[in-house]
Amino acid sequence: MVGDLRRAVPQIDATLNAPLDKDAPPTIYASSLTPSMATAALNLPADFLKQKQGLANKTLICHPVVISAIGLFLSTYLAIQINVPKNTSSSIAGYLYQIFLMNKKEVITALLFTLIAASFVFTLLSRVSDLYFRAVIDNVVESKGEQLYGVNLNDISVLTKKEVEQKPKEFRENLENTHIIIYRETPIALVSIAKNNVLSTKDSLVMSISTIGSRRVYIRSGIIEDLLDWAMIRTRKIGAAGNYGKSMKIICEIYSFDQDMKKILKSKGFVKVQSARIKENRLLGGLFGIKKELWGVQFHYEKKDE
To answer: What is the Cα–Cα distance from 280 to 276, expressed in whole angstroms?
Structure first.
């Protein structure tokens, strides 16, 4: 478990690394953020960020800077060590084969050194990525989820249903702004939205997706698309209940290397609004050009005539 929450209310199982309970009924249902979901609401976003870290590592390893550096190391070593045959072959393939026969030991040594160097570079890059994402996860955990949900999960985890109902309207609406999918009595996906007070006006409501994702095995099942549909429906409901105009927008921040999420957002009508290199880590944002991208979709709500 990522977070340490008080458990006066029994928590829905949120063990992310364990397989689903095969003995549990194969039912799937949705829930808002309830006291029994507090632990899951803290652990799932952390798992989503770890998934992004895995994607970031793949991006770094395959980055042109890394490939070029390894290639330069290999070619420089071979250029210094190999012997060139005096009698050239009539074909390029034959010439290269002659070089290989004359420099078997040097070629094998070069490949071994390259593998060692590549392994060192990959480990170093993984550490850099880990430092960045660990800091992001720590911020979520230390705030007890408040930066994502607008409520302290440590506080709601000890509330009874009656106590929740007695809370202020804004508190209860924050809970309703989160949508958790449960399968076989295990939370597998989640999305949470919050009003963007900076961009929202009396004529236009803007909602931000603070977290969205699912267990890795369900990402390609269409569940993310379903979560985005819910976010749009929830935004329309909030807009209809409030004193806003007909224009509404949902925005979502993603990383530039998250190609799957980009495809999903495009399929739902989202477009990239802006992008900026991450500032929290100069190596990732500077040398490797990793960016945070803001995507948004605008739609309108037509109020029915009374």
So the answer is: 12
In sequence order, the β-bridge partners of residue 195 are 207
* C-beta separation of 145 from 178 below 8 A: no
Amino acid identity of residue 96, one-letter, is L
Euclidean distance between CA atoms 107 and 258, whole angstroms? 37
Q: Which amino acid is at 137?
A: I
Span 17-48, pLDDT tens digits: 667 777 778 889 999 999 999 999 999 999 99
The whole-angstrom separation of Cα 60 and Cα 284 is 9
* Nearest C-alpha neighbor of 270 from the set 213, 219, 224: 224
pTM: 0.86
| Cα distances (Å, whole numbers) of residue 30 to 190, 196, 230 | 9, 24, 11
CA–CA dist 60, 127 (Å, integer):
11
Maximum distance among all alpha carbons in the chain? 94
First to last CA, the chain: 50
Tokens of 35: 């006291």
Q: Cα separation of 179 and 188, whole Å? A: 11
Measured CA to CA, the distance from residue 40 to residue 47 in angstroms comes to 10
pLDDT tens column, 54-78: 999 999 999 999 999 999 988 888 8
Q: Going from the N-terminus, what domains does the chain have, and what CATH number goes with each?
A: 26-59+132-298 (3.40.630.30)
DSSP lists the bridge partners of residue 204 as 247
Q: Cβ–Cβ contacts within 10 Å for residue 235, how many?
A: 23
Residue 5 and residue 18: Cα distance in Å, rounded? 20
- State how far the Cα of 3 lies from the Cα of 45, in Å rounded to an integer: 11
Which residues, listed in sequence order, are joined to residue 214 by a DSSP beta bridge? 189
